[in-house]
Design brief:
heterodimer, A: 114 residues, mainly beta, six-stranded mixed sheet, B: 113 residues, Immunoglobulin-like, seven-stranded mixed sheet, four-stranded antiparallel sheet
Chain lengths: 114, 113
Amino acid sequence: AQSVTQLDSHVSVSEGTPVLLRCNYSSSYSPSLFWYVQHPNKGLQLLLKYTSAATLVKGINGFEAEFKKSETSFHLTKPSAHMSDAAEYFCVVSPPTGGFKTIFGAGTRLFVKA
Amino acid sequence: DTAVSQTPKYLVTQMGNDKSIKCEQNLGHDTMYWYKQDSKKFLKIMFSYNNKELIINETVPNRFSPKSPDKAHLNLHINSLELGDSAVYFCASSQGGVNTEAFFGQGTRLTVV
């Protein structure tokens, strides 16, 4: 069985300050982990994915995430927030077989203040 | 070119009606999905269709029926629409196997009145 928990439903940062969106997972096998972003009235777009290679994963738009097995975490970070980063972010866990058993977290809404 | 496209983008209909949402992907993927996103943004997978094998989430009412005429299309038909069916429905596709991410359509906002 597997699950994913996004620890914050809302995060608010000022433009130019760091972003941290937290995600914890549980899985009985080595999962693949993803972060997706959803801008208002848009579909989901893949930011980055972890697939058991390097534990620090770099994605698009300056985002990165670090896989920490000991903490069962996959937190998403960005050094400096931009107004265009305001969106909903989903952490996703998927078993090695992928597909149907993929589970989405509840989402974290990121607000960026000018 | 749009990788995963859904039509219509918006759908407003009355209770009791039957409606369909269409989805097409031009990525050559072998697996397609339908997800439902409720008002709290929670995403729940409804169906997965891989090479003519349909996997159904058993919590989905049987008023919902996916139809796949070919590998590039997965349509969603909904009978006897209810108020609780109002949500955003996302189609997605992926190439089956290990460590594959899903590509999503723009979503269809269904409102049942």
